[in-house]
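User: My collaborator sent over this chain with a note saying "see what the structure looks like." That's all I know about it. Can you take a look?
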Amino acid sequence: MSHRIAEVVYDCFDPQALADFYRHLVGGRSRQSRPEWATIWADPLIIGFQKVPEGKAVKNRCHLDFEADDLETAAERAVTLGATRLGGIVDDPPGAFVVLQDPEGNEFCFVAGYPEYPDA
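Assistant: Without extra context I'll predict from the sequence alone. Here is the result:
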């Protein structure tokens, strides 16, 4: 038996605001929204945001990486949308990355130069 990922879900304080941030960051469109839940479809990824009462307490154990041709430009744009940059560009042969936090403190990265995954 195999399973496929249906969506990645973030616990958050304000689902609509965080969904809007990621929708503007990576494109896509809203799929559904209600006060306790918002979803965007950023083909091929579906990202859900569900309201929880507690805030983020520690570093993420899992985060999203987004491909970017120009890491500096991508990071600067993310900051204008409400992200916080956590450092400079890190060279990590064969590529590079930069780490940021979304408006609720969840880490994510822009990556560049990594090889394509082979077809399975």
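A starting point for your reply to your collaborator: The longest strand covers residues 45-51.
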